[in-house]
């Protein structure tokens, strides 16, 4: 009888640990695990109005500042990717300050999340690589939750 009681206590502790892990890591609305780490060339991103892990919906105007030569003719690519980093919606942003500088450049972009599948996704800020050479590509991925 004492052995059965010990086994039940151990099982209850394991179950409690699993429930606590789920409670602190799972998004209650989507059931996905939130990732809040910015990926890619993170040192180039000075600021961005959408925070990692933020829930987004509808159409929003995102603003930011980036350094490191992401612009061509004042244009920067700002895309929406799915959780597997596949393109959902292509977009672009426009420089709001002098884009031909080594200093940070302010930009804005309209991001449209309407009719996109709810769940984890990424906003990709990608350089407008006029050369077409893959070794010149640079990007930053900001994890978000489409709601």
Structural write-up:
The model has no long low-confidence stretch (mean pLDDT 89). The chain has one helix spanning 2-25, and strands at residues 39-40, 45-48, 54-56, 59-66, 75-82, 87-89, 92-95, 105-112, 119-126, 139-146. The relative contact order is 0.24. Strands 1, 2, 3, 4, 5, 6, 7, 8, 9 and 10 form a ten-stranded mixed β-sheet that branches. It is built from one helix and ten strands, in the order αββββββββββ. It has 147 residues and is an alpha+beta fold. The chain starts with a helix and ends with a strand.
Quick structural gist:
This protein is α+β, with helices and mostly antiparallel strands and 147 residues long. 16% of the residues lie in helices and 38% in strands. It has one helix and ten strands.
Number of strands: 10
SSE pattern? HEEEEEEEEEE
Portion in helices: 10-25%
Q: Provide a count of the helices.
A: 1
Poorly predicted ranges: none
